[in-house]
Hints:
Elements: E1 10-13, H1 19-30, E2 34-38, H2 52-63, E3 67-71, H3 78-92, E4 97-100, H4 115-143, E5 146-151, H5 154-157, H6 164-184, E6 189-197, H7 220-226, E7 236-241, E8 244-248, H8 266-277, H9 288-300
Parallel strand pairs: 1-2, 1-4, 2-3, 4-5, 5-6, 6-7
Antiparallel strand pairs: 7-8
The chain binds nicotinamide-adenine-dinucleotide.
Nicotinamide-adenine-dinucleotide (NAD) is lined by residues 14-15, 17-21, 38-42, 44, 46, 53, 74-76, 101-104, 124, 128, 151, 153, 196-198, 200-203.
Amino acid sequence: MTDISFSDRVAIxxxxxxxxxxxxxxxxxxxGASVVVNDLGGAKDxxxxxxxxxxxxxxxxxxxxxxxxxxxxxxGTPEGGQAIVDAAMNAFGKVDIxxxxxxxxxxRTFAKLSVDDLEAVLTVHLKGAFYVSQPAFRVMKENGYGRxxxxxxxxxxxxxxxxxxxxxxxxxxxxxxNVLAIEGAKANIKSNVICPMAATRMTEDLLGPxxxxxxxxxxAPMVVYLVSEACEYxxxxxxxxxxxxxxxxxxxxxxxxxxxxxxxSAEDIAANxxxxxxxxxxxxxxxxxxxxxxxxxxxxxxx
Length: 303
Ligand SMILES: NC(=O)c1ccc[n+]([C@@H]2O[C@H](COP(=O)([O-])OP(=O)(O)OC[C@H]3O[C@@H](n4cnc5c(N)ncnc54)[C@H](O)[C@@H]3O)[C@@H](O)[C@H]2O)c1
């Protein structure tokens, strides 16, 4: 197996002043990447800010002989996103890798969710990923190389009690990553999603006895692989936690075709629901065209 190296690569890791992002930044820098360590340094709910969070990680990297700069801009505005990419361009001349990791939590049951809790969470996770990734994508397209990781969550892809704002933002990131994978393909830009599970300040009240086995360092290898040249995959989602790594995917089952001229009623759907739901023979579409391909085959069978 060849070593995975990042010499001559420039990486941006958002929210890298602590938790998971810090472990990604340290691993990439140890493998030769020049890293922009971005972190607003706020509290878990997004309030406040402290420039020392990113700076401390930069000092850790430099103490081990690595190259890094700190960025304290918020991902949550277009100006902040542009400033993070500009920082990479000014210090290192390009951007090869973006790990969208910054995040906050404002958990409430849906009935009690306020507009503020919705806006704050969508802004940091979902819009923040747009604001950082768009200027970076333009640079990568020009250079013919790029790697994105977007941080979703099992709460986003599977659902979790009390996390409607967070779950919506996190599943939105899967949609964003899939489109970048498609739009970036010609320029050798790959985009994938991580659903991490780790004991950090974000999960300190949630994981119970599992926390001891879920160090953030156990997620980093998957993320580092996904942003490396060794990774041939794009448009995929991976779960990682406690040293278990697993693909997550959205499948399309063969379903039930009623026939071209069948007048289908709700009762017919009820009668065929088992076939409509049957998981045998599913495919994993890589774009809308894949489903259109399936549909045109089915329709052809009737002609
Ligand atoms: N820990 C888990 O089990 C888990 C599970 C699923 C998803 N995630 C996701 O992983 C990511 C990292 O979370 P973590 O667990 O390391 O928590 P964390 O709170 O330690 O890390 C999040 C970091 O993002 C920074 N941040 C927040 N708002 C920012 C902004 N506007 N601009 C720049 N930085 C900002 C914070 O200061 C913090 O350092 C988050 O996106 C989180 O939603 C974590």
